[in-house]
């Protein structure tokens, strides 16, 4: 498969001193205190570059918590001011893009359900172009194991003039019930790397595993495949998290997990 991606290296938009890029924070922003306290603990580890938090949550079925909404952008801004961490959130509509950019969010991500829908991705890409802002965009793999949809979404973002792009490997839905919430299907990440070697790939062990216990195993495998970083969900008290409680880790557990990983330092 060919692609038409023009890619700026990760190091041109974020300095990680040759270490893996670490994005972490709660699945969902729940309260101002939860988000800001988690951000302080993450920043204090000295290992995290970007604070993530879902403000608008895509839920598989209605009737559950669907995100705190726009007010959470103010909390992200406060967390950034107090900790110096960059911020990232998921956008799924043109309105989300506008509000996130206006609120000073540093990095946008496209979620797995959105990547599976070219109309949605195009709407997001058009809104980014309309903003005139050269904001980095990271694109999760689609829920289904379809490499073309993943690359197609990256191409649509690229078409909006964004070259600061990366892919997130978050695993794929499968009918078979296995130990994983989303099957890693590593071969799809390998194929993406073969097709677009310059494209940074960031691993999301939280959504692959669906539970905390398996995260170290998946994270080490991602490092062995030379992936360039992680997005890992963390919460000041995972046991009471409003979404994805089983897979979130405390900031202290995150630091320990990262300390135990071995990875190759890129040649300088
Ligand atoms: C998330 O990052 O919390 C999320 C909803 O992920 P995904 O799009 O991978 O399901
Ligand atoms: Mn989540």
Give a structural overview.
- The protein has 268 residues and is of the alpha/beta class.
- It has helices at 32-45, 71-83, 94-102, 112-115, 118-131, 147-159, 186-195, 205-209, 215-224, 251-259; strands at 21-25, 50-52, 86-90, 107-110, 137-140, 165-169, 201-203, 229-233.
- α7 links the parallel β6 (165-169) and β7 (201-203).
- α1 (32-45) packs parallel to α2 and α3 runs parallel beside α5.
- The longest helix has 14 residues, at 32-45.
Q: Order of strands across the widest beta sheet?
A: 1-2-3-4-5-6-7-8
Name every ligand kind in the structure.
phosphoenolpyruvate, manganese (II) ion
Total strands: the figure is: 8
Q: In one word, what is the shape? A: globular
Q: pLDDT average, as an integer?
A: 97
CATH class category: Alpha Beta
Helicity level, as a percent range?
25-40%
H/E element string?
Answer: EHEHEHEHHEHEHEHHEH
Query: What structural class do helix, strand and pairing data support?
Result: alpha/beta
End-to-end distance: 31 Å
- Just name the CATH architecture: Alpha-Beta Barrel
Keywords: Transferase
EC number: 5.4.99.5
Protein name: chorismate mutase
Enzyme class: isomerase
């Amino acid at each position: 498969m060919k692609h038409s991606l023009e890619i700026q290296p990760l190091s041109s938009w974020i300095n990680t001193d040759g270490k893996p890029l670490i994005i972490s924070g709660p699945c969902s922003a729940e309260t101002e205190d939860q988000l800001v306290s988690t951000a302080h603990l993450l920043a204090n580890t000295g290992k995290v570059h970007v604070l993530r938090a879902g403000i608008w949550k895509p839920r598989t079925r209605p009737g559950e918590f669907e995100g705190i909404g726009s007010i959470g952008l103010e909390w992200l801004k406060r967390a950034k001011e107090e900790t110096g961490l960059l911020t990232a959130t998921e956008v799924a509509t043109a309105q989300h893009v506008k509000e996130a950019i206006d609120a000073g969010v540093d990095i946008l991500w496209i979620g797995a359900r959105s990547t599976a829908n070219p109309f949605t991705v195009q709407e997001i890409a058009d809104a980014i172009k309309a903003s005139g802002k050269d904001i980095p965009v990271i694109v999760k793999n689609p829920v289904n194991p379809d490499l073309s949809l993943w690359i197609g979404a990256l191409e649509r973002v690229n078409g909006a003039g964004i070259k600061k792009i990366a892919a997130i490997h978050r695993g794929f839905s499968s009918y078979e019930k296995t130990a994983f919430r989303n099957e890693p299907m590593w071969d799809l990440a390998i194929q993406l790397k073969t097709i677009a070697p310059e494209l940074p790939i960031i691993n999301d062990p939280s959504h692959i595993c669906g539970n905390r216990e398996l995260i170290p195993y998946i994270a080490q495998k991602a490092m062995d495949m030379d992936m360039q970083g992680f997005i890992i969900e963390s919460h000041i008290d995972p046991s009471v998290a409003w979404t994805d409680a089983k897979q979130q880790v405390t900031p202290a557990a995150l630091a320990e997990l990262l300390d135990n990983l071995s990875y190759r330092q890129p040649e300088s």
